Every structure is written in C-alpha cells, then in structure tokens.
Amino acid sequence: MTEPLNTPLNPSDTSIPSIGLIVVGDEILSGLRQDKHVPAVIERLKARGLSLSWVAMVGDDRQYLADTLRRSFATDHIVLSCGGIGGTPDDHTRQAAAMALGRPIVRHPGAMELIRQRCEESGQPLDEFRLRMADFPADATLIPNPYNRIAGFTVNRHHFVPGFPVMAWPMIDWVLDTLYPHLHHRSVEHKKALRLFNTPEARITPIMEMLESRFPLTRLYSLPSVGDDKLARHIELGVKARGGEAEAAQVEACFEALLQALSPLAAPIELL
Predict the structure, then answer these.
(1) Distance of CA 253 to the CA centre of its chain
(2) Tens-digit pLDDT profile for residues 168-180
(3) In angstroms, what CA-CA distances link 37 with 28, 40, 96, 167?
C-alpha cells in the first residue's frame, strides 16, 4: 500500500508568498531544446490568480544547483523545479536538494510501490535504475505523476517534477490545486496604463520615482518601444498593484497623479 500523498500546506495562511521557478538542464542553456516551462507556469498561475516572481535556469551542475536551492530554501517562497529528477548520471536535482538541506537521500517506500506498479503494468523489470527514481531527500513527500506513476517530490515548499512537459505540467497543476487552493484568487491585479509618445525614459524616471514614494502600495513600469510603421516611438507607462480595495484606490490615485505629472511634458498620450 502506498504512503499517502501530500495534504494542503497551512490552509489558514492566506498571505501570498513569492513563487519561483527553477528550470534545470544543460539542453536548455545550450539551445538544444527551447524552454517551454516558463510560459506554461505563468499561464497556470494566472488562471489561479497567482503570479510568477522569479525564474532561474541552471545547468546539470550539482554544486551550482545545490547553491541555488540553498538560497531559495532560505526564503519562504513557493518554488517549482522542472528537470533533473531521473536516474541517469546527468540528473542531479534530488542530490542537490539533499545537499542544500543537509539531509541524506533515502529510498521512499511509497515511490517504490508506485514504480513497482508501473513495472508490473508495462512488463519492465524492477531494477536498480528504476528504483533510483524513488530516492529523495529525507522527509520528502510525493507528487503524483499521472503519466507513468514515477513520482516527483516536495520538500520545504519546493516542488520537484520531471523536465518532460507531458509529466511536469499536470504535476504542477496538482501541486497548485492540492497544496495551495487557499491562495487562489486571494488578490486581484489592478492596473492602469498609457502610451507616451516621443519621450525619452530619462525624462519620466524622476516622475516614476516620486510617485512610487507617494503611493507605496503600487509599482510603476515602463516598456519602451522604438516604434514601427503603425506606432511612433513610445513608452507604455503604467501603474499596477495586486490586492484589494486599498491597492485599487492607490492605483487610481497614482494614475491620476501620473497624468498630472506628465502634463508639463506636452507629449502625446494614449490611454490604454
């Protein structure tokens, strides 16, 4: 009988932690394969009212991966990690996670049982190579893999899944829906933006700094464009915040203040 899988973590904690993504593999950094995980994770988070705070792409270097994980384990972030949990010599993620935590690698009985079931179904031998994929840092819990039963694992709000999208993405869906349903749609992104034409960023930087100081719940952003045959050179300039009524009110107030501050520049503006 398999060990029970994860249960929701701290459902009474309704704060929204930062969410990070680690993509592991030399093939991504060399260009042999194009990363697909970043847009897929952004899409999955957005569908649940969440957002991605940072991304790290790491090659198949056990020590560097351990150093990366050691830094993220020191935070309260939720971290999704794709890749490097197979059984071949270039798969280092499980060992790197154990190194970062200072824990031993142990063979998980629940993962072993799932591998045994998979081997029985497929007619493959239950050999040491396959059993290696049940080796996780001590105290890890399982992430079910609906594709082939070879589980991923969770430890310290870090969730490790394979690099294959057909496996990784349903497993990430399971993590988000099983462990963090209490975080879904807890806050709304409020945003107002405009296009400012034929104005260098240097002229608006002091305005942005002043407004962020006056409206601390908001963030201002600028996306410059050299223009094309449809739009002249411009900057998409906006105010955004994630939260409730207080954040929405500050976005409105900050945007009005932005319009007033831009008025002396006498530059064309298009509201978005």
Answers:
(1) 30
(2) 999 999 999 999 9
(3) 11, 5, 20, 11
